[in-house]
Design brief:
Number of helices: 9
Strand order of the largest sheet: 1-4-5-6
Distance between the termini: 40 Å
Number of strands: 6
Order of helices and strands: HHHEEEEHHHHEEHH
Mean pLDDT: 84
Shape: rod-shaped
């Protein structure tokens, strides 16, 4: 079987299996995209991971509780050796073993960082900024993928329009073929004209199969991009919800204010804030740090080194740490964060330039497609009138079949161009809204 015909039959079968009256709108496609797209799911999980990192940073404000146990054995025992000058004249000499060979110790310690050079607070602020950056990246990805979904969806719609146009061309060619066959049987036309009409109809059928294959391939691309795992029948070209209504004139506004608050810009701002807080946390590590410790012990021997029994006791401690030299590691890390901030600033400036350019381009495209729609509409009206007159003239024998066929095809082509212009208008408007920072909701 011809591969093009096989593909068309496959999608036709999927359409027959789909629920009756069900049509996939752009709104439904966007809902499926948000629900099932794996890239968006991964970014959502990244947000959850950054939230867990915030909880990890908060743990620095809580005390640490550690249980410990220790057993040691020494080959020699401790000794106490003293030479005292009393009683005179010979004094007293002491040489005595203290304790035994092994030591057992059990304990529980609670430690707390009393002062860390404000590093904990800055680190917490950095983690919060990281969460906001991840969330903004996720929202920006949703908007970016919505724009791509719309482009694929409208490409699918345009391919469907081309296939519908070719179906009309094929129908016109078959009508002409049938008319000429009737004329041949009536003896008013030569057989070669009927054969030429039949060849033209077969050529139109081949072109229709090619257009249908393009349409069906785009249908699968839309479904694959959405990430839908359940509704395979939605890929059928027969369940595409077409939107050919007139578009109200958009209220063109300056998008600079919206751009400043769009998710991509917010993500960059929060990333810069995260780098700034990280640099401040590193600066805090250069200050003295104070740690407190409280614990209990149960050991043999305990504080009574001469004894051989378990003894409970407690301990309190205070420790001061101040790193005086680390090989310039801290300074190098802070310089890296400063460079990262400058890189993010340049990225934001580049994106702002691209957004402004896209706003200007999409607005120009909208105007051009509006003019094309009006021209295609006028062409359709003229072709419709011409096709009607040429059909009557052809039936009366004063016009050729090719003239009638060409007029009919011109009418169908103009209708396709009208639908194409409407679709491209919608796409240009969506591109402007995306570039101006608006959330795309279909």
């Amino acid at each position: 079987m011809n591969p093009l015909r096989a593909t068309s039959l496959l999608f036709t079968a999927a359409a027959l299996a789909a629920p009756p009256g069900h049509a996939l709108s752009l709104h439904q496609a966007q809902e499926i995209l948000f629900r099932d797209n794996p890239d968006l799911a991964i970014m959502r999980l990244e947000v959850e991971r950054s939230e867990d990192q915030l909880q990890e940073a908060k743990a620095a404000w809580l005390p640490s509780l550690d249980a410990l146990g220790n057993y040691s054995y020494t080959t020699e025992t401790s000794h106490l050796k003293l030479d005292l000058p009393i009683p005179p004249p010979n004094g007293t000499s002491i040489d005595k073993a203290i304790g035994d060979h092994d030591k057992v110790e059990l304990g529980l310690d609670a430690s707390y960082a009393i002062f860390t050079g404000f590093a904990r607070g800055h680190n917490l602020d950095a983690k919060r900024a990281g969460i906001q950056s991840r969330e903004a990246q996720w929202r920006g990805a949703r908007n970016r993928m919505s724009m791509r979904l719309a482009a694929l969806y409208y490409a699918w719609q345009l391919a469907g329009s081309q296939a519908a146009y070719q179906e009309k061309v094929l129908a016109h060619a078959r009508d002409l073929q049938k008319q000429l066959q009737d004329f041949v049987r009536a003896g008013t036309a030569v057989r070669s004209r009927a054969l030429a009409a039949e060849a033209n109809a077969k050529a139109s059928e081949v072109q229709l199969l090619a257009f249908q294959n393009t349409r069906d391939s785009l249908a699968y691309e839309v479904l694959d991009f959405m990430g839908d795992r359940e509704s395979a029948a939605l890929a059928s070209p027969d369940v595409l919800a077409r939107d050919t209504a007139a578009i109200p004139e958009p209220a063109w506004t300056d998008g600079d204010t919206a751009q400043a608050h769009r998710p991509e810009a917010e993500a960059i701002d929060q990333s810069m804030a995260q780098a700034r807080f990280g640099s401040q946390a590193l600066s805090g590590q250069r200050l003295p740090q104070v740690f407190g410790l409280a614990g209990v012990r149960y050991a043999n021997p305990g504080l009574d080194l001469a004894g051989d029994e378990f003894m409970p006791y407690g301990l309190l401690g205070l420790q001061l740490r101040w790193n005086l030299y680390d090989g310039s590691r801290n300074g190098s890390q802070r310089k890296q964060l400063e460079v990262q901030t400058r890189v993010l600033q340049e990225q934001k400036r580049k994106l702002a330039q691209e957004w402004r350019k896209d706003m200007i381009t999409s607005r120009l495209q909208y105007s051009r497609w509006s003019a094309q729609f009006e021209a295609a509409k006028a062409s359709r009206d003229a072709a419709e009138a011409a096709a009607s007159d040429l059909k009557r003239q052809f039936e009366a024998g004063v016009a050729t079949g090719l003239d009638w066929l060409e007029a009919s095809n011109n009418q169908a082509r103009a209708e396709m161009m009208m639908e194409q212009a409407r679709t491209m208008q919608r796409l240009a408007l969506l591109q402007w809204e995306y570039a101006s920072g608006k959330e795309l909701r279909f």
